[in-house]
Amino acid sequence: MNEAVLLCLIPALPLVGFLLTGLLGKKLGRGLSSWIGTLTVAASFGLALTLFIAHPDGFAASGLGIQLFDWIPAAGLTIAFGLMLDPLSLIMTLVITGIGFLIHLYSIGYMKHDEGAPRFFSFLNLFVFSMLLLVLADNYALMFVGWEGVGLCSYLLIGFWFTKDEYNAAAVKAFVMNRIGDLGFLLGLFVMVATFGSLSFGEVFAKAGAMEAGAPALTLITLMLFVGAVGKSAQIPLYTWLPDAMAGPTPVSALIHAATMVTAGIYMVIRSHVLYDLAPIALTVISVVGLATAIWAGLIALSQRDIKKVLAYSTVSQLGFMFLTLGVGAYSTGYFHVFTHAFFKALLFLAAGSVIHALSGEQDIRKMGGLAKKLPITYITFLVGTLAISGIPPFAGFFSKDAILAAVYARSPLLWGLSIFAAFLTAFYMGRLFILVFHSKDRTTKGVHPHESPWTMTVPLIVLALGSTAAGFLGMPAVFGVPDWMAGFLAPSAGEYAVGLEEGTEWLLMGISTVVVLCGFIFAVLKYGPGKVVPTEDKKTRGPVRWSLRKFRVDEFYDALIVKPLFALSSWLFGTANDRGIDGVVRGTAGLVAWVGGRVRLLQTGNIVFYLFAMTLGVIVIAAVAALG
Amino acid sequence: MDFSTLTLEIGAAALALILLVVGLFLPDGKKGQVGIVAALGFAFLLVLSFLAPGSKGPFFMGQYMNDGISVLFKQIFILGSLLVTLMSLRFTRRFEDARGEFYVLLAFSLVGMMGMAGATDFLTLYIALELMSIPLVVLTAFEKGSMRSTEAGMKYVLLGAMSSAILLFGLSFLYGAAGSFGYGAVMAALTGGQTGPLVVIGGIFALAGLAFKVAAVPFHMWSPDIYEGAPVPVTAFLAVASKAAGFAALLRFFPVVLVPLGLGMTTLIVLIAALSMVLGNLTAIPQTNIKRMLAWSSIAHAGYMLLGVMVASFAGAAALVYYLLVYLFANVGAFAAVTAWSELSGSDEISSFKGMWKKSPLISTVFIVSLLSLAGIPPAAGFIGKFFLFVEVAHKGYLWLVALALVMSVVSLYYYVSVIKTLVSEAPEGETSKADIPLALRAVMLVSAVSTVVLGVLPGPVMGYIRNILSTLSS
Question: Smallest Cα–Cα separation from B450: which of B360, B363, B374, B381?
Answer without folding.
Answer: B381
